[in-house]
Specification:
Oligomer: single chain
Shape: globular
Strand order of the largest sheet: 5-4-3-6-18
Distance between the termini: 46 Å
Radius of gyration: 23 Å
Number of strands: 18
Structural class: alpha/beta
């Protein structure tokens, strides 16, 4: 234990943030790191509880949280980094964008503020980079086995690093013109600046990973070519088909999927040229974001930085409670009302709202026709169901509409078609207990199998599939 009375004597201290008026003027990260002296005290709040649910129930990666908290409190930062890397390939990324399931499962969270786990994780990783402790770890032996990974999101990248360190030759194919997948194109720069990704990619290249961007496997090269030239293939293409809103007026201009909007802004930040007629810009517009999740919040933060006149976020579901309910106990993820940094920057939030149609002017969206909903539990199924409240119809002005209602399934691309891969009920790739598809030697992992999820889940699944592919390759030797 770091300090017997640490969790009693020391209060949680959050890292600072730039004032809203300043941070919405740019797309850079705006959180101010805590000093190391403060972090040492914050780590002392970790009470070394008998059953640490933070990494047993909270963290999908199984991060050794009490162990590296103890090392931070004792000033053994390099050992803390070793413990962190034992379970997590990219802690500098999860320390920025993970929703911190671990903190909700912290024993202190029963009736106090939890340990500042996420920020301590970030600071351990950043100190490792600053001190030069994070270096390439090339394999000492070569298996003479080749692995092709299709998709460079967190699942594909974590699998690639694990496999190349295991002595295999790894090539990562990405259809976009830069490596990073969801991390590069789906996460706004104000949450994750892209130099953070590039720094880790440079390490992976030094370890032997070969990156092939701007290659659409199944179109530019044949998957059968990969089968002949690689001993195993991992598909990690994500779940990219957005769930649409099929209501009257959907054809109007000015209605876009959230991911198209977010990825375009990231490309603009990177200096990529976007044709003027294709630019999606919220400047001086009434923006409506449909969908109350994290992607919707990212749209709000982006629209603020583009200079939107007014932003409204609407959600089909009812407003969550401010505290846990009896059927949502600790240590499970609390289903409560959350206000992100983007919400704090200014927007109107409406719950239990159904979009009935879009109205337009000169073929461009002008408003949404909405209705309020009443949610009740179905006595027969015990599920929640809604009904429209009579007379509650209203109109919502909109010059720009962003649909952030999730994803339907992975793209049914030529890659999947040419390999004749089976799909599950949702339309994602079907795999067996070892992560292999119906095609021998072809594995699939991440969102393209399980559906859209968290970055920590993707990294964990990437590490797991790397272990299974390694076993597959060595069993053939």
């Amino acid at each position: 234990m770091s300090k017997i009375s640490g969790f009693i004597d020391i209060k949680r201290q959050e890292p600072g943030k730039q004032e809203v008026a300043n941070r919405i003027r740019h797309f850079r990260e705006f959180e101010t790191p805590l000093p190391y002296e403060t972090l040492i005290d914050q780590a002392a709040r970790c009470m070394d509880c008998g059953i640490p649910y933070c990494h047993a129930c909270g963290c999908p990666l199984g991060n050794l949280i009490p162990d590296w908290n103890n090392m931070v409190h004792r000033g053994h930062w390099q050992r803390a980094l070793e413990l962190l890397h034992a379970t997590n390939n990219f802690p500098e990324i999860t320390g920025r964008i993970c929703p911190a399931l671990c903190e909700s499962a912290c024993s202190l969270a029963i009736n106090q503020e939890p340990v500042l786990i996420k920020h301590i994780e970030l600071q351990i990783a950043e100190k490792g980079w600053q001190e030069g402790w994070i270096k390439p770890q090339p394999a000492s032996v070569n298996s003479n086995k080749r692995v092709a990974i299709i998709g460079s999101g967190p699942a594909g990248l974590s699998a690639a690093q694990q496999l190349v360190r295991g002595g295999h030759s790894v090539v990562v194919f990405e259809k976009s013109n830069r490596i990073g997948g969801l991390l590069r194109y789906g996460i706004p720069d104000f949450k994750l600046e892209k130099w953070v990704i590039d720094r880790r990619l440079a390490q992976m290249q030094s370890e032997g990973v070969i990156f092939e961007p701007d290659v659409d496997v199944g179109v530019d090269i044949s998957p059968h070519y990969l089968s002949r030239n690689f001993d195993a293939i991992i598909i990690a293409t994500g779940e990219s088909v957005a769930r649409d809103l099929n209501v009257p007026g959907r054809e109007h201009k000015g209605i876009h999927f959230a991911m198209d909007y977010l990825s375009q802004q990231n490309r603009r930040n990177n200096g990529e040229s976007i044709p003027a007629e294709k630019i999606i810009d919220a400047k001086n517009k009434h923006v409506v974001v449909i969908g109350g999740g994290d992607t919707g919040a990212d749209c709000i933060g982006t629209a603020q930085r583009q200079g939107a006149r007014r932003i409204t976020q609407i959600e089909l579901l009812r407003q969550p409670p401010t505290e846990r309910t009896s059927d949502n106990p600790w240590p499970y993820w609390p289903k409560i009302l959350r206000t992100s940094s983007s919400h704090a920057e200014g927007c109107q939030r409406l719950w239990s709202i159904l979009t009935k149609s879009f109205a337009g002017k000169n073929q461009h969206v002008a408003s949404l026709q909405c209705v309020k909903l009443d949610w009740q539990k179905d006595p027969q199924t015990d599920n929640q169901k809604y009904s429209e409240i009579p007379g509650s119809e209203f109109e919502l002005k909109a010059d720009l509409v962003l649909i952030a209602t999730g994803f339907s399934h992975t793209e049914h691309s030529p890659l999947l078609q040419k390999l004749a891969l089976e799909k599950n009920a949702k339309g994602n790739i079907k795999v067996d207990s070892k992560g292999m598809t119906c095609a021998s030697g072809v594995f699939a992992v991440g969102d393209c199998v399980c559906g859209a999820s968290l970055v920590v889940n993707a990294i964990q699944q990437g590490r797991a599939i790397a272990k299974r592919v390694h076993q597959f390759l060595t069993s053939k030797t």
